[in-house]
Amino acid sequence: MGTKDYILLTFLFTLLFLSSCKKKSPIYSESIDETIVEVPLEKFKFIPPSSQRNGDADAGYEYLIYGDYIDSGVPVDLYLGFTGQGSNRLNRTGDNTNVRYSETAVTAPNGLRVVSANCLTCHSQTLNGQLVVGLGNAITDYSADQATNINLVDQTITLLYGQNSAEWEAYESYSRGIHAIADHVQTEVRGVNSADKLAVSLASHINKHDLTWLEEPQLPIADEVIPTDVPAWWLLKKKNAMFYSGLGRGDFARIMIASNGLATSDSTKAREIDNNFDDVLAYIFSLEAPVYPKVIDATRALAGENLFNAKCATCHGSYGENETYPNLLVTIEEVGTDPYLVSSNFGYSYFVEWYNSSWFSQGENAAYLKVENGYMAPPLDGIWATAPYLHNGSIPTLEDLLNSSQRPEKWKRSFGTAASEYDNEKVGWEYTVESISGSSLIYNTTLPGYGNQGHTYGDDLTEEERKNLIEYMKTL
Hints:
The chain is an alpha+beta fold. The protein has helices at 3-16, 57-66, 76-83, 146-161, 166-181, 195-203, 252-256, 267-286, 298-311, 313-316, 332-335, 340-343, 349-356, 398-401, 463-473, and strands spanning 27-32, 35-40, 44-46, 74-75, 103-107, 113-117, 124-127, 130-133, 248-250, 328-331, 367-369, 374-376, 410-412, 422-423, 428-429, 432-433, 442-444.
């Protein structure tokens, strides 16, 4: 590999970086398929809705793929000089024609055209040869050392243009943001995401009132990096709160614009982005889950549907003509899954206090964070496409999710995108069981935050019932 190719790889990777006494319990009743399901509120908590802004979905898509919500990056000519002609999977025009779908060419404040990351970095993925916008990215590697990568890009731009150049000026904010988070966001394995920790790390350098940049960190940043598996965007329209732990409340569009923190300037820019993200939210709400591409056994699926409605619908909702979603948060004690995400990242008390007294929580479209002791039972639309499973991506297939005894402690997959790498019988990624770890390609469930325990509700199913249930879940 030549020097030019090596710099390109490190540059592109950096661009990508941008998860008592006994008495009768009170009851929450939810009508599901004409059956009243009684759920004890000690274990399950209903999350109430928040009003959301309306927007234009088409305009939202345009802003998503062309917008300057991150307006600092690498000069277009440098980017194109390395990458050449791209595949243009988004059918974009202008200088975006040859820019990868996970990046966008925009105009920096000084008028220079630059390339930076966009939302599709985390919220799209190729599956079975097709780009699925809104599918959480479970392929990208965030386990590399970002400090080394950004230093190499800094040196390249300094060498080619000089630090007094317009090119450096247009790139500096992005570089500054990556340097601020580089030591805090490195994951242990590939495929999981540390975006939650990224947000916390950036907040430490942002004035909470006017969003101007602070050179010295103002908040303590814990060493732990607790990962998440990026959820599918098409689920959001059913949810009353954002994030796995249900703590994102109020205006969803306001919560989503925090990505601007990577190249923040001030609240004037944030207001501009905020005025466009109601449209982006409308686009996200318009997304539907991809249809399962293989033949489905109708007899098994019907048997599985009856089993699902009896066993799973209480938490995950019902599907079909009269869909329901109960918006229940399940306590950690009940679901038993890895607890670390709840108490880390967005759960840090100092970050919650920062956010809830910041610019983001002010005005008509305010957002706020509310910490809960559990995880939301998500909608399951398109669940066949969203492997790996659980909030931390610790379980490779649906069959393993529904049979905890066969979940691998350490496992490895290829991180490719071909149909041959997806197991259509177990539904999820093809993988091998490993006996040792030490590589970022091996998911090690013994690490804090990476555990695959809990959600054992399928353990009492027979093998036949499990196959029927999985067949039905392919139809969702």
